[in-house]
Amino acid sequence: MARITHGIACSHIPALGVASDFDKWEDPYWKPIQEGFAPTQKWEAENLPDVVILVYNDHASAFDMKIIPTFAIGCGESYKPADEGWGPREVPVVEGHPDLAWHIAQSLILDEFDMTIINEMDVDHGLTVPLSMVFGKPAKWPVKVIPLAVNVVTYPPPSGNRCWALGEAIARAVESFPEDLNVQVWGTGGMSHQLQGPRAGLINAEWDNMFLDKLSGDTQELRCIPHIEYLRETGSEGIEMVMWLIMRGALGKETRELLRFYHVPASNTAVGHIVLEPVNGDVPPSATVEGAATQEQID
Amino acid sequence: MTDKNPCENAGGPIDIHAYLGEFDDIPGTRVYTAQRARQGYHLNQFAMSLMKAENRERWKADERAYLDEWPMTEDQKQGVLARDYNRLLDLGGNIYFLAKVFSTDGLSFLQAVSTMTGMKLEDYQAMMIAGGRSPEGQRSIKEHR
User: Does residue B18 sit at the A interface (CB-CB below 8 Å)?
Assistant: First the structure.
């Protein structure tokens, strides 16, 4: 049976990809960030999962304004790094896990999360930067990846509450997959940042750290934060943090913090990172008739 | 059955007008609403086209001719030619799409974003290194907080 072993959250600032690709980590500007992620790289090597469900947002790369899926899951065999305007990053092709991805997609739809299914797409910095931060520069990524893309660009994005509930549904889906697999869920993006207008550069370290604090333990407060609060407190692009709640929801009732790092700035943005372990991974049963049938298989 | 909704204010009907109205109360910010998405559709799709290397070459060879292939307003075209990103946000541009324009120019996010703040690049970068722009006074126009 597949199981969710840990959750990781990580900013996906494009400049971090540049720092990695062009070996800038010794530069005094980037050094603290490299040091901040070093414990995670070591920890991840010792706790390597088979599959990462990587929650991220596409930044006008695979999706343009023609089609805007709220939640989309990658069920393909592999995904190439996208050309975002300066040529694709020279990082390994991302290998998918179509068996688990299709299982999750089907389970989620029966659980009344109406997913968009993606069979082919390129993946941008939103997905590849966290891989670089956690794995460095390997010739091949050491895990399979299921991309889960969330619209946080065109308003309204999904609510934090909906994201949390989707995480719970992902946990139910993973648990009902018969193969013996260790799965991590990653939430990416954030923390404080605003990339537009005269208010650009806004950073709210106090709010960000409150958010990091409340990812641990059994509080569910974060799922109730309205969009306007992210916008006012953390900048217009801080809304990406709703994606962290999919990760948090998937870890169940109670979590413990293993590693954490916060640093300002990388480019325009606050870098936030946390590694969480489920203490009590229970999630509520599905409310649907179809979902209840799936639940019986689990029990 | 699932637990009841854990969020007091969620689960009931959302007043979309009140939801959208609050966005206008944030200083110096254009939230990318449906209205802006409609207004800026072709502007953003033009920017998107610069993801292809062959389009970037054509664009660099003759920006005006390239823009004229798109059903954009003259205002939008002028805004692009002037790289006036605040104006482009007002005309429905979205920063992730506009990023294709400044990336093609060889600008980083930091360089391009600083142009919208009225600050010199060095000053903007120094502000970021010192911890970024404080949220104090930047949360709400009406409430001065």
Answer: no
Return residues 79-138 of A near B (CB < 8 Å): 82-87
A53 SS3 class: strand
User: Measured between alpha carbons, how far is residue A99 from residues A6, A74, B57 in Å?
Assistant: 21, 11, 41
Annotation says A103 is catalytic: no
- Compute the 3-state secondary structure of chain B and give helix, strand, coil in percent, each to the nearest 5: 55, 0, 45
Give the residue from chain B lying closest to A271, CA to CA.
Answer: B131
**What's the mean pLDDT in A263-285?**
97
What 8-state DSSP symbol labels residue A58?
Answer: -
The C-alpha angle with vertex A228 and arms to B24 and A13, in degrees rounded to 5, equals 100
> B99 in contact with A at a CB cutoff of 8 Å?
yes
Flag whether pLDDT at A45 surpasses 50.
yes
Parent domain of A162: 3-294
Catalytic residue among A6, A103, A193, A263: A193
Q: Which domains does chain B have, with CATH numbers?
A: 33-129 (1.10.700.10)
What is the pLDDT tens value at each position of chain B, 145 positions in all? 445 667 875 555 679 999 999 999 999 999 999 999 999 999 999 999 999 999 999 999 999 999 999 999 999 999 999 999 999 999 999 999 999 999 999 999 999 999 999 999 999 999 999 999 999 999 999 999 9
For B94, which residue in chain A has the nearest alpha carbon? A153
Q: Considering the domain boundaries, does residue A249 fall inside one?
A: yes
Report the C-alpha dihedral over residues A119, A120, A126, A130, rounded to 10 degrees.
70
A205 touches B: beta carbon within 8 Å: yes
Residue B1 CA from chain centroid, whole number: 42
**A273 in catalytic set:** no
Q: pLDDT tens digits, residue range A27-37?
A: 999 999 999 99
The position carrying tokens 């950073």 is A203
Q: Where are the beta strands (DSSP E) in A166-253?
A: 182-188
Q: Is residue A299 part of a domain?
A: no
Report ipTM for this prediction: 0.94
Chain B CB within 8 Å of residue A238 CB: no
Q: Decide which of A266 and B10 is more confident.
A: A266
